[in-house]
Write a structure and sequence with these properties.
7 helices, 2 domains, 14% strand, Ribosomal Protein S8, Chain: A, domain 1, alpha+beta
Length: 167
């Protein structure tokens, strides 16, 4: 991915603020919990869209199955934040064209998921085994303590689980 984004680095050098805040792959690309992170701060909207386009070209070969784009929330923007809107629209278009999924992460982050099976749970938002173990223990305790209510809760939980897997 770093090689694919080096062309953005060259174009970013021409931005008015590049001497103060240069965009470099070594400072704006890293991984967190197996998820590649691309910080779009210090890029304008046009270059941010080019990053999304480049990820679209590289998406099928992305071994991690997902990538996180950091746009920020626009707190330092004058007026409305442009970067989150531009990147969000570009990701939605890219996702629809390739059958991928895009989701919002933590504040100011957008995640492009190209392969649900290869993507880390942090990207997909899937619940871990600890949650399901706790839920099963709670369900067993509820069935033991108050059988009619516990059975009703167990049925609701099973329906919720089936519905979430079908999404």
């Amino acid at each position: 991915m770093s090689e694919a984004l080096t062309s953005i680095e060259v174009k970013a050098d021409k931005l008015p603020w590049a001497s103060e805040r240069p965009w470099r792959t070594e400072t704006h690309l890293w991984a967190e919990s197996g998820l590649p992170m691309v910080d779009l701060h210090d890029l304008g909207p046009a270059l941010a869209k080019q990053v999304v386009a480049t990820l679209g070209e590289e998406g099928e070969g992305l071994q991690t199955g997902a990538v996180c784009l950091i746009t920020g929330r626009g707190r330092h923007s004058m007026g409305r934040a442009v970067l989150p809107q531009v990147v969000g629209e570009a990701l939605q278009t890219l996702s629809a064209a390739h059958g991928w999924r895009m989701r919002s992460g933590a504040a100011g982050r957008m995640i492009l998921i190209t392969n649900e099976l290869a993507a880390p749970r942090a990207a997909t938002g899937a619940l871990g085994p600890g949650f399901w173990l706790l839920a099963a223990g709670f369900g067993a305790a509820a069935i033991w303590a108050v059988p009619p209510l516990g059975i009703a809760l167990a049925v609701i939980a099973i329906v919720f689980l089936i519905a979430s897997r079908n999404r």
